[in-house]
Amino acid sequence: MSRTAPANGARGEVCRELGGRQRRLCLTLGALAEMEDAFEAQGAQALTARLASPSASDLILILAILLRGGGETVDEAQIARFRASDAASAAIAAFEAAGAP
Fold it and tell me: Which of 5, 18, 21, 92 is the most buried (most CB within 10 A)?
C-alpha cells in the first residue's frame, strides 16, 4: 500500500483505503458544482434530495468527483472495482468532513 500524506482536516479532506491503497477525497466547491451538473440539480437543496438514495452508478460518479477534489487521478473503471461498502463509507466520510448534511 502506498503512503499518502495526512488529510488536511481544515480543508475537509479525508483519506480512506480504496482499491488497496490510501486515497484522498475532498468535497470542494468545484466538486459540488460538478455534482450539480452531473445530476442536473439546481442548487444545494436539489442536490441533497438527489443524493439521498444514490444508485451504484451514482456512487461511482460521486467517488470520481470526490477523489478529483482530493487531487487523485482515478477513472471510473477503477472505481467500479472498489468494494461497495468501502466506497459508500469513503463518500459519507468526505461529506461529513466538509460539514455537509
Answer: 18
**Can you tell me whether residue 14 is helix, strand or coil?**
strand
pTM of the predicted protein model = 0.86
Q: Contacts by 72-76 with C-beta closer than 8 Å and gap 24+?
A: 72/23, 72/24, 72/25, 74/19, 74/23
Task: Please give the pLDDT value at position 76.
Answer: 87
Q: Are 26 and 70 in contact (CB under 8 A)?
A: yes
Report residue 19 as a C-alpha cell.
482499491
- The domain ranges of the chain are 27-97
pLDDT at 47 over 70: yes
Instruction: Judge contact between 41 and 35, C-beta under 8 A.
Output: yes
What is the chain's length? 101
